[in-house]
Design a protein that fits this description.
heterodimer; A: 422 residues; alpha/beta; seven-stranded mixed sheet; four-stranded antiparallel sheet; 15 helices; B: 156 residues; alpha+beta
Chain lengths: 422, 156
């Protein structure tokens, strides 16, 4: 395939059976020869051999530190690293590559904004608006910032079926609101939040918006310019890339005005014994040796995703979510978390009356079905829903309708084991 | 500026089959454990309790409360538990309560976490060991948490 075709996604629907051949791990047979059904993609996805090979290639042929060596290998490595940055820029349609900061993940990207922008700009009495459905990574950094600055946290409430009460937004936004931080897709409920509308209203109130795109960037089209996002964060490992790399997008004028976050090598222009001048973007926010190979792997992952087409991926996952709702709806005592399939991505969380989520996950595992159980790093959301833990099946484009059916069968089998209680 | 240098084509070769060794967790939901889960020993509250404590595992929401009625001679005349959670935490609580019923406090003080895992029997991964050890932790605190004392909760 030539690079020219990479940017033009195919219009045809996605055939998971074809793409599965690219993922060696999906052919795993578990205990007693049961095929693995991997439905824990919201936690982390698997990698195609194209990404694995890209990583092997760097280490075998082109690895050295970046932006440092005046030698051939370092030039090679630097080219690949910056090429990955360009891949990310194109993937989210940022205006400039200087707006793409490589971080270790979504969590550190959000912490960067809280520490750098937050400490420089927030004063006692300022408000940060979050939602009741945020991941801990989009709650705790703001709690820490509030403790340092005296800022006040407020939260957009959710309905019982897990959608933001958008009618509350005008009341919650005021001239005190400095930042709105919201997940584009809930990692528990799967709810697709109306981020565009939130950004429009927040900007009208004079607030900036940070989008936690950890669950949305891997599964659909992201266009930061069309969206008008001020900051947007996501992780490589949830979209076929290696762990240890994530992305912070920030509008250039915001990043330019922000003080550096971590201090060290790379992020400086000049250092004296008692002072330093920060480097230009993006190096200013990339202290120390960056995640060189993970970033290059992320670039290969993006090329793979673009070849499939983000719209095709989204449409296939909607099929899977619809099927999961059909298959699971008949299960006695089963309650879905979150809204109907048309309002969510490829995440289906549920509880079953009388069976703890851990037991569900353990018994599904016997049948080869891997799901997550617990609070999924969203304790306040579970408290709001009045439950302690939930089970979560989360899909990616390589999952099949037959695998969703296996989930239903495995759940019926689990119920038979815990027969008297369910 | 940074031109695309490479592109990886979709593979067409069949994937390698990897067979993992069999997992020996089949005994996790064995009848003995399920029986404790579904028909627990002394599940409920004890009105004449002299000692009580409760705790949860915030990671999974498992919750266990233990009541002990201890005689002046230090004998556990009655042990009861209440709770909510996974099969392992609740079955482990039932097994533990059955074990300590009628024993002397000083015997129970030597009952270690290792003893608790041995009592449960089935092999547990480190994550699920936390479920099994929740009732054991609650019991360890309950022995020092006299219900007459106002600061019982502080003596964990």
């Amino acid at each position: 395939m030539t690079p020219a075709t990479v940017a033009t996604p195919p219009a045809r629907p996605l055939d998971p059976e074809v793409v599965r051949a690219d993922f060696p791990i999906l052919a795993t047979l578990l205990h007693e020869g049961v095929p693995l059904v991997y439905l824990d993609n919201a936690a982390t996805t698997q990698r195609p051999r194209q990404v694995i090979q890209a990583i092997v290639d760097v280490y075998e042929k082109q690895y050295a530190n970046v932006h440092r060596g005046i030698h051939w290998l370092s030039d090679q490595s630097t080219d690949l690293f910056e090429n990955a940055r360009e891949c990310v820029r194109r993937f989210i349609n940022a205006a400039a590559r200087e707006e793409i900061i490589f971080t270790p993940g979504t969590t550190e990207a959000i912490n960067l904004v809280a520490r750098s922008w937050g400490d420089a700009n927030l004063r006692a009495g300022d408000e940060i608006l979050l939602t009741e459905m945020e991941h801990h990574a989009n709650l705790v950094p703001w709690q820490q910032l509030a403790a340092r600055s005296g800022a006040v946290l407020r939260h957009i409430p959710i309905t019982d079926d897990g959608q933001l009460m958008l009618d509350q937004l005008p009341k919650l936004l005021s001239e005190k609101t400095r930042l709105v931080a919201v997940a584009a897709i809930s990692n528990v409920l799967g709810t697709i939040n109306p981020v565009g509308e939130i950004i429009r209203q927040a900007h009208a109130a004079g607030a900036l918006v940070l989008v936690d795109a950890a669950q949305s960037a891997p599964h659909g089209t992201t266009d930061v310019q069309q969206l008008g996002a001020d900051f947007l964060a996501f992780s490589g490992h949830k979209m076929l890339g290696p762990s240890g790399v994530g992305v912070l997008y920030g509008r250039r004028e915001l990043l330019d005005a922000m003080p550096p976050f971590l201090g060290g090598g790379s992020m400086i222009r000049r250092v004296r014994l008692d002072s330093f001048e920060p480097a230009e973007l993006p190096a200013k926010f990339e202290a120390g040796t960056p995640p060189i190979v993970p970033a290059i792997g992320l670039g290969a992952a993006i090329e793979y995703l673009e070849r499939l087409g983000m719209q095709a991926i989204h449409e296939h996952e909607l099929l899977l979510t619809r099927r999961a709702h059909e298959v699971l709806a008949d299960q006695p005592g089963l309650k879905f978390l979150g809204p109907a399939p048309e309002h969510k991505g490829g995440i289906v969380s549920f509880t079953v009356e009388g069976i703890h989520a851990h037991d569900i996950a353990q018994l599904l595992d016997r049948r080869g079905v891997a799901v997550r159980a617990g609070h999924h790093c969203a304790m306040p959301l579970h408290k709001r829903l009045g439950i302690g833990a939930s089970a979560r099946a989360s899909f990616y484009f390589y999952n099949t309708l037959a695998e969703v059916d296996r989930l239903g069968e495995a759940l019926s089998a689990a119920r038979r084991v815990l027969r008297r209680r369910s | 500026m940074w031109a695309l240098r490479r592109s990886y084509s979709l593979a067409t070769e069949p994937p390698t089959k990897v067979v993992m060794s069999g997992l020996s967790e089949d005994d996790l939901y064995q009848d003995r454990i399920l029986l404790h889960y579904e028909e627990p020993f002394h599940r409920g509250r004890c009105p004449r309790a002299t000692h009580a404590h409760e705790d949860d595992n915030p990671l999974c929401g498992d919750f266990v409360h233990i009541d002990l009625a201890v005689s002046p001679e230090g004998q556990i005349d009655e042990a009861w538990f209440d709770g909510d959670g996974c099969c392992i935490s609740q079955a482990a609580a039932s097994m533990l309560i059955e074990q300590v019923q009628g024993k002397r406090l000083d015997e129970i003080k030597n009952f270690t976490a290792g003893d608790m895992l041995a009592l449960f029997g089935a092999k547990l991964t480190p994550n699920r060991q936390k479920c099994c050890l929740l009732p054991w932790r609650v019991l360890q605190s309950a022995m020092y948490a006299s219900v007459e004392s106002d600061n019982a909760e502080d003596r964990r």
